[in-house]
Task: structure prediction
Amino acid sequence: MPGSVIGAEQSLDLTRFVRPGDSIVWGQACGEPQTLTERLVAQRHQIGPVRCFVGIPARSILQPESVDGLSLSSYCGTGSNAALHQAGLLEIAPVHYSRIPDLLTSGPARADVVFVQVSAADETGRHSMSLTDDYLSAVIDSAAVVIVEINDRAPVVAGARTLGPGEWTAAVRSSREPAQMESAHASDVVHAVARNVASLIEDGATLQFGIGAVPEAVLRELHGRRDLGIHSGVLNEAAMELMESGAATGARKSLDRGIAVAGFVTGTRRLFDFVDRNPAVNVRSTGYTHDSAILSAQHALAAINSAIEVDVFGAVNAEVAAGKYVGAVGGAMDFLRGAAASRGGLPIVALPSSARGRSRIVAALGGPVSTPRADAAIIVTENGIADLRGLSLERRVEEMLRLADPVHRGELAAAAEPILRGEHQLTRGTVR
Result:
C-alpha cells in the first residue's frame, strides 16, 4: 500500500517492491539507509539481478563476496569502491557532479527504485532528508518506487525538501546510529599546504571544499577569519568547528545569508548533534548546491579542491593514481568555474608536491584530465602559490616548477621542455 509503514517487528521483504532488472539508488556516506542496503544484500538472490548506483561509502557493506547478482556503478572510486573497481565488480562513470541528477532520472541510467534515510517526523508530521539530499531529491521525483528508512537517531536537518507518507511507496522504522566517517589524517606537509591556501582567504569569503585531508586542514587554518560563509557539496566536522569558533557566520553571503548550505553531511555523532534542528545548517539538492548561477552569485567564492596530480600547464587529474581509480571527476569543475565567475572568487587546487618519492607536479598526467588547463586555477603546494589564470604556457611551466619538490625540479624541467617545444609547433601550425 503506498505510504505504508512496515513495523519494526516485521521482516522487510524487498521482493514486494524491487523487480529483476531494476536500477536502485540510495543515499551516500552518512546518509546511507543501512537497514535497506543490508536487506538488499541479504535478499539479492530472491530479488534477481539488479543495478545499483552507489556514491561515497561510509561503510563496506558491498564486499566482493556479497555482490553477485548486483551490477554496481558509481561516480567515484572513493573508499571501498576502489577495491570493487579493481576486482572488476564496479564500473565508474566519469561525470561532473552537477550532471548526476539528470543521469539518474533519464536515459539508460535512470533509477527505478530509491532508498532514503529520513529523520523521525517533526511537529508537522513530516520527515527531513536528514544527512543527505544532493542527487536523491531528483530521483525521488522520478523513481517508480521510493522506500524510506525512518531512523529516529538520524538528525532533523533543515532544507528545501521534507517527505510525508503520501510521497513514499513504503517505509521501515529503525533506531540505529547513522554510518560515520572520521576526519582524514593530515601530515606536516598537508598542514604546510593548508597554511598557504589559508593565506589567500579573506574575511567574508564563501567557502566550498572537497573531501580529504587537504581541504579539511585548510578549514582548520581559518579560525582567525571573520564572517566566512559555507556553500559546499559536503559539510564536515572541520566546517562545524569553523562555525563553532565564530569564524563562519555566513553574514556576508550573497545568498542564504547566515546559513551553511551543503548537499550532504559527513562526520561522527558530534556533527550529527550539531546539525540536528540547527537553523544555521541546510541540506539541499545538487540542483542548488552545484548550480552555476548560484555559485557565480556567491560573494568571493573560494573553491578549495585537491588533486592527485597537476601537469606543468595546469591540467588536473583527480581520478587515477598509480593506475587505480581512487577519486572522481566530482564537483571540482562545477565549483572551480563557479569561483572563477564569482566576484573576488578563488578557484583553488591544492596538493602536496610529492608523495611516496614521486612528484605530483608532472610534465604529463599519468591519468585522465579531470579539469582541463583551459580552466587553469590557482595551484598551491607546500612550496608556494601559482595563479595560472591568464598566464602563457611558458610562464605556467616556470610557476609550476617553482611549486614542485626541489628534488624533482631538474628532472621535471627536462621532461617539460620537449613538451613545450611541441606546444610551440602546434600553436604555429595552420588550421586547414
